[in-house]
Design brief:
Layout: H1 8-11, H2 13-32, E1 42-48, E2 51-55, E3 69-73, H3 89-98, E4 104-108, H4 111-119, E5 123-127, E6 144-150, H5 156-170, E7 175-178, E8 182-187, H6 190-212
Parallel strand pairs: 6-7
Antiparallel strand pairs: 1-2, 1-4, 2-3, 4-8, 5-6, 7-8
């Protein structure tokens, strides 16, 4: 059968609109919970095999609307827009290139994630919590999830390479922390990525309380 070349962006238009709506809702709710102060954080979702929707750099997530969402390719280059994507877009695109099943990547700057990333060394272990079952592939509380912590780095391509090397060596992850910075978490859809963010935040809150009580 003859192959027809069709620009994937127009075909993906309804998907882009739906993903944008999901990201706007996630941004507003995360901001309301104090996880995206000021204009921090960035949110993205896959709209096709080689395009993602992502928040425009500097957007306030409490006021996020369709103008705050743009499209980039998997090299992080803007598609059909003169807007500027987040400087950390490369951390999103690295995950989408790595795993075609990833449908959304959400990055927040919560207080818990920021503080705990400065308390622990290279990983935050989470074990024996019932809510661990919220993560895809986990079916018992009797497990341990190690959330890796990477040193902060303004050289984003270098940071992306460091994370890529860790993931290749360690196997599947649901998220990671950047020291003094925040949390990246992902899932097969925006809904699953949100569930992972919410579960990790609850677990971080538990760990913060144990830390205050001197239990860890």
């Amino acid at each position: 059968m003859a192959q027809t070349n069709v620009d994937p962006v127009p075909r993906a238009e309804p998907v882009r609109a739906q993903r944008a709506t999901e990201l706007i809702e996630a941004g507003r709710q995360f901001y309301a919970r104090g996880w995206l102060p000021a204009t921090s954080g960035n949110l993205s979702a896959r709209i096709s095999t080689d395009r993602i929707a992502i928040t425009v750099s500097g957007t306030h997530k409490g006021d996020l609307d369709a103008e705050g969402i743009m499209v980039v390719d998997l090299d992080g280059e803007a598609v059909g827009s003169t807007a500027r994507p987040s400087a950390e877009t490369a951390l999103h695109t690295a995950l989408y290139r790595r795993d075609p099943a990833i449908g959304a990547v959400l990055h927040i700057h919560s207080l818990n994630a920021t503080v705990l990333s400065r308390v622990f060394g290279d990983a935050l272990p989470l074990r024996d919590y019932e809510i661990l079952k919220a993560f895809a592939g986990v079916d018992t509380h009797a497990t341990e999830l190690k959330v890796p912590i990477f040193p902060n780095d303004q050289d984003i391509p270098r940071l992306a390479r460091r994370i890529e090397e860790h993931m290749t060596a360690s196997g599947p992850l649901h998220g990671y922390l950047i020291a003094g910075h925040g949390l990246y978490a992902w899932g097969r859809s925006v809904a699953e990525a949100r569930r992972h963010v919410e579960a990790l935040e609850f677990l971080f809150d538990c760990e913060m309380n144990l830390y205050r009580m001197g239990r860890i």
